[in-house]
Amino acid sequence: MYSQLAYAQLLYWLSQHESSAKIAVEKFLLFLKANGDEKRLAAIVNFFTHNHQILSGVLESRVISANKLDKETMTCIKNYLRRIIPSAKDIILQPEIDTNLLGGVKILYNDTLLDLTIKKQLTNLKNSLLKI
Amino acid sequence: MKINKEEILAELKTQIDVFQNTFKQEHVGRVAEVGDGIVKVVGLDAIKMSEMVEFKKDEQVIVSGVALNLLTDGVGIIVLGDSTLIKEGDLAYATGKILSVPVGNELLGRVVNPLGEQLDDQGPIKAMTNYPVEKIAPGVVTRESVKNPLQTGIKAIDSVIPIGRGQRELIIGDRQTGKTAIAIDTIINQKDTDVIPIYVAIGQKESKVAKIIVELKKHNVMDKTIVVLAGASDPAALSYIAPYAGCAMAEYFMDQGKDVLIVYDDLSKHAWAYREISLLLRRPPGREAYPGDIFYLHSRLLERSAKLSSDFGGGSITALPIIETQAGDVSAYIPTNVISITDGQIYLEADLFYQGVRPALNVGLSVSRVGSAAQIKAMKQVAGKLRIDLAQFRELEAFAQFSSDLDTETKKRLELGKRLSELLKQDQYEPMPVTEQVAVLYAAVNGLLNEVPLEKIKLWEKGFINYLKINGQQILIDLSKPTGLTAELEEKLKQSVIEYSQSFKS
Q: Which residues from B are below 8 Å from A5, CB to CB?
C-alpha cells in the first residue's frame, strides 16, 4: 500500500512532467484505480494541497526564539539549513516567539528538532549535576 | 563530616566549568490524535518498532510511550501513563531506545509499577542497572532439563503435580477457586529457600494486592519479594507491559545464577489489555476480537522462563501463570493457548471448592510434564502409590454411589481414598515442608490411618507433625537426604506413626 505522501509525490511529478493537467490527472487516477485506492482520493488531494511546498522541494522550518531575531541571524540559520539539507530547493523560515526559552533558538524542520536554547542547556546542566 | 557552604559552592562551580555544552538533533513528530491511551503522531519517519517515545512539557518528560504501530501516514503509540496530559499539536520525541526497567537487589521488598517506579512508601528506587522489557528467550544450547524441585508447600501439588525450577506450570480455574491462594502459598514457602519470588499483578484490584502484601509481610517473606502492580485503574498499556517488566527483573537474578519464582496474576486480564490496545490501534480483530498475535503475546513471555545450564550460570525462572476460565471452559481460546505453551497445569474446580476440598485441585485433570524428575527421592517413593490410590478411588467413588453391596476390598479402597483426599486438604497460608509431607503421606498410603476416624484426620496430622518435631527430628532430616526412604528409615517412620496413632486413639 502506498502512503499519502507517495501518491502526492506521484501527482506532483506528473504535474511537472506531463504536457497538460488533464493528462496528468488521468494517469494519476488510472494508477490509483489499479492499486484499488480510489477511496483515498479525497485524503490524498487534501494532503497534496497542504503539502505542496514540501513536494516541490521547499523546506518549511519553524524558528522559535525568546526574542525577535534580526535579519543577519535569520540568514545564518538559512545558510546552516542549506548546508545540512542540500536537496532543499528553497527554505522558508517561520519565526515564532516564546519568552520561556530565555535565549537561543529552536529550529524545527521535517521530523527534526535542533534545540539550541538556553533553557535546554540549563536542563542538561541540571541533569548532569543530578547524576553525580 | 561537616561540609561548609564555600566547599559546596566551589564544587558546584567546578562541575559547571567542566560541563560540556552539546546539542544533538532530536527526532520529533506532532500529535495528531490522542484518546483512550493511544496517540497518533504524524512524522517520526525513522522511528523503529517498540521504540520509546517521550512527551515533554518545559523540557521535563511528562509521560512516555511505546511505538507499536508504524503506519504509512503516522505512528500509533501506546501511552504508559496519563494520556490526558498530552494534547493535539504536542511534540513527541523519539528516544532511540527500547523500553527498559530498573533491575537489581534494590527492588527486593518493594512494590513497583511496570516502569519500575515506586508504589510503596520506602523512597525512590535507586537501581544501577536497567534490563530491556522485551528480550529474546534463552536458546536451546543455553538450557538444561528441569531437575531441582520447587516446593510449593502444598501437599496435593508437591506429591502429585510436582513443579521443578525452570518449569512453567499453569494455574487455571474459575473465579474464586483459590488460584491466587496457591501462588501466594508457594511464595510464602520460599521464605527459607534461595528462591526469589516476584508477584506480577495484572489488572487486579488494588485492595486484593494490598491484602496479599500484608500476608507476605506477616510471613516474613516480603523482604525478598518484588511486587509489580498494574492495577485495574491503570491504563491498559501498563497491564500489557507488566508481565514483561516482571520477567526482566527476574532475568537479572537468573543471569546471576539465582533461582526465581514469578507469578503472573493473571494472563487472562493481560490478554484483555492487549486486545483493548490492538483494537484501539485499529489492528484487525480475529477470533473473539483478539489480535492475530495473541498466542505470541504469551509464548514469548513464558519462553523466557527457563533453567539455564551450569555453563551459563545455572539460574532459573519458574513461572506460575494464572488463567481464569469462564464456567470451567478450559477449551476456550486463551486457556488452550496457554495450556499448549506451559509444562503442565493445576486445574481448580469450583464444585470441589464448594464441597470443602481446598485446595480445589482436580488431581485427575492436573498434570506436570516434568513429573517426578522434580521431586526428592523420598517423595517420589511415596507419591507413586498415592497417585494410583487416588486414581482407583476416583473410579470407585462414582460406582459406589449407586451400589449398596460392596465387597471388602472395594470398601477398603474407598476408605483409603477418603483418608487420602482428606489429608490432601490444607489451610491457606500454611505451607508444609516437604519432609513433613512425606511423613504424613507415607502413613496414609500404607494404610496406617485406617483406624483414625475420617473427621479426625486433620487433627491427627497436626498432632503427628508436632510429635515428629519433638521426638523424630532426625527422621525429618533423613527424609530430605538423597538416599530417600531407606528400609531402616521407613521402619523408624512406621514405628513413629504406630506409636503416635496409639496415643491419639487413647
A: 72-73
